[in-house]
Amino acid sequence: MIWTTVFLGGLCVFHFALTLRAEISNSPWGRTMTLSRSQTPPRHRRDTSTSTGTSTPSRGPAFTSCWLPVTPTEHKILDDNTQETGFNGDDGSYVILTWVGDGTGVILVLSTISGPLNAYLAGGSSRLYRSTDYGKSFHDISHRINHTFIKEEFGVSVGPGSSVILTADTHIVDNPGGIIFTSMDAGATFKFIQLPFHLAQPITYHFFNPDYLVALSIDGGLWLSLDFGAKWTKVHNGVHSFSWGAGINLFFSCSRVDAVEAEERGDLALKRTKDLGKTFTIIHEDIFSFGYIGAFLFFSVMEDPRSPRVMYFSSDQGDTFSQALLPSASTEQ
Description:
By secondary structure, this protein is mainly beta. Helix content is 5%, strand content 39%.
């Protein structure tokens, strides 16, 4: 397959020969664009011995300009700020483009083959490209991660500064834990790390300190790292969800007993640790769910089985809380 990236100033436009589904998400540290083909052709194992990212014009379909009227001055601005990079021969059906850092000019592109299980076992792979000039040119840096197959769902995560985490697609049965690659220099170099657990969701960065990471394992364990993933410590079991608060406050909901569907029944306890997992405080019991937005902590509680749940909020990291004056609702809206 042939695909191209066209950069119009700070805007990136992917141009594919096939129909794509695109999703754009934003984080405090970068913007991510995910594209996938609506229909996937037969998969074949990639040849990882050569690099395919080039800065030469693509032989794919010609780029079609927009229909909005453009003045001659605007035409010149577009011409002076438009670059096209061709990825000839790349057969990835799932593409993730991520801006790294603020003003670094670094963009990472992950292209993966979404194949069946036997394709993974046979060496199904992904390709990782890196640009240091705002997308004018890309270089295949797959060798920096040993051509490891990176997850599609949450394979690339960017954090404060120029930190990047890549999560490998590993099999639970064959491996004691997951594999990640970490970088503190926007992908110029990567460090291989074997995790003592398998991730259930993306690793979460602290808001300001990239060394502080928190993760949830598939068996409900809450894990913390204080050195950017080099070492991990399990701090709690039976965790359902978590969120960083102000400073180093960490909130999480957990089952009071190892019960099935505790979240659906509102049988969770909301806890907080102010010292990175050394001690814990119970903020409230019998909660359904919680969230932390801005400086406010929210959680819903079933106080009476015969009545709808109620919502509480706190502006002091859970030390005190008040009931929100909201219309009654059976679910959070």
